[in-house]
Amino acid sequence: MFLLFSHKLTEDQITDAKNNLKVDEFIYLPSDLKKLWENVPPTNTSLFNFLLPFREFIKEKLKPNDYVLIQGEFGAVYLMVKFAFSMNLIPLYSTTERNYSEKRKRNNKVELKHVFKHKTFRKYEN
């Protein structure tokens, strides 16, 4: 499974991928690409050229029917999911259960806490 996102997989995600998707290898982004993926420029009117290094990396490393976990900035995700389909890859995202709590503090402050727990991988649909 190629990981086009900026986090480390959780143990739940690793177990799910191995047991349910029969994944036996996880390919993280190299550090230079990870840094780019974490910093998609918000002022670019197009991301096509920005995403070129990711498309090239995927072309070199993956083969049809490989899984690609794609999560991140909405526009970049959309374009990379389209690209994954064009390469006959299987793009996925991780679904989570979210627990939320809000605590009112002194001086009109509010503390928010979000806890996410992996549930399953879902295929993007073409």
Nutshell version of this structure?
This protein has 126 residues and is an alpha/beta fold.
Descriptive report:
By secondary structure, this protein is α/β, with parallel strands linked by helices. It has one domain (2-123). 33% of the residues lie in helices and 30% in strands. It contains 4 helices and 5 strands. The chain has helices at 11-20, 31-38, 52-61, 74-86, and strands spanning 2-4, 27-28, 67-70, 90-104, 110-123. The chain has a 5-stranded mixed sheet. The longest helix is centred in the middle third of the chain and has 13 residues, at 74-86. The two termini are 19 Å apart.
Shape: globular
Number of domains: 1
CA radius of gyration is 17 Å
Strand content: 25-35%
Summary keywords:
single chain; alpha/beta; 4 helices; 30% strand; globular
Topology:
Layout: E1 2-4, H1 11-20, E2 27-28, H2 31-38, H3 52-61, E3 67-70, H4 74-86, E4 90-104, E5 110-123
Parallel strand pairs: 1-2, 1-3, 3-4
Antiparallel strand pairs: 4-5
